[in-house]
Amino acid sequence: MIKKTFVNLLFSFITITFIISCSSTKISSESLNYIISGNKFAEKGDFQSSANQYRLALKEEPNSTTAKRNLGLVSVKIGKYKEAIELLKDVSSFYTKDAELFYFLGEANRAIGNDNDAIKSYQQSLNISPAELRVQKSLSWVYLKLGEYDQAEKLIKRNFEKNPLDLQLLLISTSIDIKKERYTKAIKAMQEFEKSDFRIVSKDQTTAETEKILLLNVLGNAYAGVNNCEKAQKIYEIVLKYRPFLASTLTDSAKCDIKANNTLLAKNKLEKAHASEPNYPEALYLLGKIYTNNDPKKAAFYYKRFVEISSDYKNLEAENKQAQASLNLLESKKFIQGKKSD
C-alpha cells in the first residue's frame, strides 16, 4: 500500500536525540555503560545493536526510564512498533516535555494503523514543539488518510510554499490536490519532476527509488483525473516495474482499464492487488462491482469486507453506502432464490 511505503520513507529521514540519564531512579554504572554504548550504535545507524545494548541496560536496571525511552525510539526504527508503543507509553509520564518521545509514539501507532492514537501523540508533540516540521508532515498524512483534507492542507500549506523543493511536502500537497480533484494543479506542481524524466537526487538509492515511486503514482493519478489514461498508464507501468505488487498502483491502473471497458485486465490487476494487500479498500470495492453480475457470491464477499474496513474512512463514505446497498441487494436475491428452490 502506498501509505505504508510513505511511512517507511519518513522513517528513513528520522534523526533521533538519545539521552543518557533523565531516569526517575538511580542508574547503575553497568546499566549506564550499556546506554552510552547503545547511543553510540544508534548514532552510527546500527539500530539493532543499539536496541540490544538498551535491553542489556534494562536487565541491569529494569526500571530505567532512560533505557526504556531510548529502546522505544530505536524500536520504531527497526519496525518493532508494538514494543515501541508499550515502552514509550510506559515512560511518557516521566517525559511530559519530550516532543520527540510523543512524535515517535505517533509514528509507531501510525505504522500499525492506530490513526486516532497517532493523532493524539502528534498533537502532544506539537504542543511542546509547535514548529516541528516532521511532526506536521506525519500528522498531515494521517489526516489525508482519514479524509480530513482541509486539516491536512492547513498543516503543510505554508511550509510547502516556503519549501517547494521538499519532496515530502510536494508528495503530501499533490496527494491532497488529487483527493480534492485539483488534478491540473497537481500536474503543474510536479512539472519539474516530469521534465527531469522523473529524476530524484539523493545520497541513498533506496530512498530515491521510494520517493520516485510515490511521486510517480500521484502524477499518474493526476493524469487519470484529467481523463488522460493513456499517459497515466505509462506512468503506472514505470511504477510497477519497480514494485510489481503495489496494491495502490495496480488498483489505479485497473480504474483506467475499467474506463476503457477492459474488465478482464482490470480484474486481474485487482486480484493481484488483493493478494498483495488483502485489506486495500479500493481494490475490494472494485472487485465487488466487477463480480456483481457474473459471480454474486464473490461480489458479496468483497463488498462485505470493504464495508467492514471502510467505515472509519471519511473519504470512502459514498462507496461505503453504495457497497452496503449492493450487498443488501445481493443478499435479498439470494434469499428469494432460496425460497424458489424450496
From TrEMBL:
GO terms for molecular function: kinesin binding. GO terms for cellular component: centriole. Keywords: Coiled coil, TPR repeat. Residues 306-333 form a coiled coil. It comes from Fluviispira sanaruensis. TPR repeats lie at residues 99-132, 133-166. The keyword Coiled coil applies. It comes from the Bacteria. SUPFAM superfamilies: TPR-like (SSF48452). This is Uncharacterized protein. Pfam families: TPR_16, TPR_6, TPR_8.
